[in-house]
Each structure stands twice: as C-alpha cells, then as structure tokens.
Amino acid sequence: MEPSREAIFQALAGVIDPELRRPVTELDMVRSVEIDGGHVAVMIALTVAGCPLRSSFQDQVQQLVGAVPGVDSVSLAFDVMSPDEKQALTTKLRGGVEERTKGIRVSKSTRVIAVASGKGGVGKSSLTANLAVAFSRLGKRAGILDADVYGHSIPHILGIHQKPVLVDKMIVPPVKGELKLMSIGFFLAARCCTARSSSSSPTCTGASSTCSSSTCRRGRATCRSRWRSCCRAPRCSW
Predict the structure, then answer these.
(1) 5-12 vs 54-66: helix crossing angle, rounded to 10
(2) Which of 22, 171, 212, 213 stands 20 to 30 A from 31 (CA)?
(3) Residue pLDDT tens, the chain, 238 long
(4) Dist. CA 35–CA 71, nearest whole Å
(5) Using CA atoms, how far apart are residues 167 and 213, in angstroms rounded to an integer?
(6) CA angle 153, 155, 161 (to 5 degrees)
(7) How far apart are the first and last CA of the chain?
(8) Under 8 Å CB-to-CB from 9, ≥6 apart: which residues?
(9) Which class for 183: exposed (0-12), middle (13-18), buried (19 or more C-beta within 10 A)?
(10) Which of helix, strand or coil describes residue 50?
(11) Measured distance CA(56)–CA(162) in Å, rounded
(12) Which CATH number fits domain 5-93: 3.30.1360.40, 3.30.300.130, 3.40.1390.10, 3.40.910.10?
C-alpha cells in the first residue's frame, strides 16, 4: 500500500533543525515530497549552501519517514532558500515581528539577572550557568548573554561547540536543551586559534610570549594566563 502524504508530513514534523531547534515543517523547510509506490523523495531547503549538519537531516528523515507504513525506501535532497524565504523565516523566528526594534526591549514577564565582579576567578561563569540551567529545568525560558571578553568559558561549561547561525542578518543563538546561549567566545575563537593537525600538543605563539600547553587547551578560545598578548598575534595556532 502506498503511504499517504499526510503520514509523510506527520513524520517530517518530527525532523528537528539541529541549529534552529524547530521542526522543519514549522519552519517551511520542506520544499517537496514525492511518492512513487514505496519510494519517498524529500527535498529540504536549507538556509545556507553546504550546511555542515546535513547528516543530521539525513539520519532523521531516514529514521522517521522510513518508519511510515508502506515506505520501502527514502531519498533526501537539499536546496537553498531564496531571499524571500529567508525573510519569511526570520519573521517567524522573531515571533511575527518583521523588523527589529531600536534598542533592547523585553516583555514585562522577563527578568534580567546581571552577574558581574571586579575580580576574575570568583565563579561568575559557574554561577551564571547554574542559574540558567536551573531556570530552564523549572520550565522557564532562559538564555545567557556571555559578555566576558577575557574569560568567556560558559560555552565550555555547557558543552556548546555549535556556532550561532546567521539567517537574513539575524543571529540565531545555539541551544543546549531549551537553554539559549550567546557568547563573545563564538566570535573570538576563529581569531585566537586555528587548528593544526600536524601538532599533537597545542601551543599559542604570541607577539612576544608563548602559552604553554597547560594554559592553552584544545577546544578553548582563550589562553588563560596571557590571553591578551596571545590573541593579538595573527599567527596564534596549535
């Protein structure tokens, strides 16, 4: 028996965009669905060409659509959104707001907690991460804005290595569970260090100093003791 389109779209509703963390059907990313007997061909429109997370879409589509009764095989193709489609997606992600308002505005139900200190190493990042995770687990919508220029360690604490996504001039923050994070470390990492596969021990060479492997660790964008001098140099690498 040939599967119905309704059953296929119901299965596709479970395919979650790994960056935007929303169903592809909700984001209008399903370009087409073609059914030929027991074969189903799906096309998904991505926000950018060459998306590095294509494999996630492939795995989800194969698993969910392949489980629909009557489906014998599944193929997935990709396309890229047009400018108009990206604009519509941006509006949807902004909750129906077509243009960004001037300044920063939050709803009356939103509470902002500022965690700051005039001294480093006192636990600001740990406290911030624990507060945000606790609120998120309580069912509250929570997000972190990590503006620590020299010690942006919250991405490491939360285990978030995904970069923000740019959709039609709007930056979409990475998500861990239901917790959103925006950190200055996402924008400084590429400037500070570049991976060198030929080197087994990471080192950062600055203009006038060298960070040892004990102070500059793989996966971090900061060189703890000499971060400023290290990241000023254009040839900082490991």
Answers:
(1) 140
(2) 171
(3) 788 899 999 999 999 987 777 899 988 889 999 999 889 999 999 887 767 678 889 999 999 999 999 999 999 999 888 888 888 887 777 765 555 566 667 777 888 999 988 888 899 999 999 999 999 999 988 989 898 888 888 888 988 877 777 766 677 777 887 788 888 888 875 554 444 333 444 433 333 233 333 334 444 444 443 344 334 333 333 2
(4) 9
(5) 37
(6) 135
(7) 57
(8) 25, 30, 33
(9) buried
(10) coil
(11) 14
(12) 3.30.300.130
| In the chain, where the domains are located | 5-93, 124-189, 196-238
Burial 143-180 (b: 16+ CB within 10 A, else e): ebebebeeebbbbbbbebebbbbebbebebbbbbeebb
Residue 33's DSSP bridge partners are: 42
Side-chain half-sphere exposure of 126, counting CA atoms within 13 A: 4
Reduced to 3 states (helix: H, G, I; strand: E, B; else coil), residue 210 is strand
CB 230, CB 216: distance < 8 Å? yes
Q: Side-chain half-sphere of 122: how many Cα atoms within 13 Å? A: 7
pTM, full prediction: 0.53
State the pairing for strand pair 143-146/179-183: parallel
Q: Decide the pairing of beta strands 39-46 and 179-183.
A: unpaired
Place of tokens 């001039």: 169
Are the CB atoms for 43 and 31 separated by under 8 Å? Answer: yes
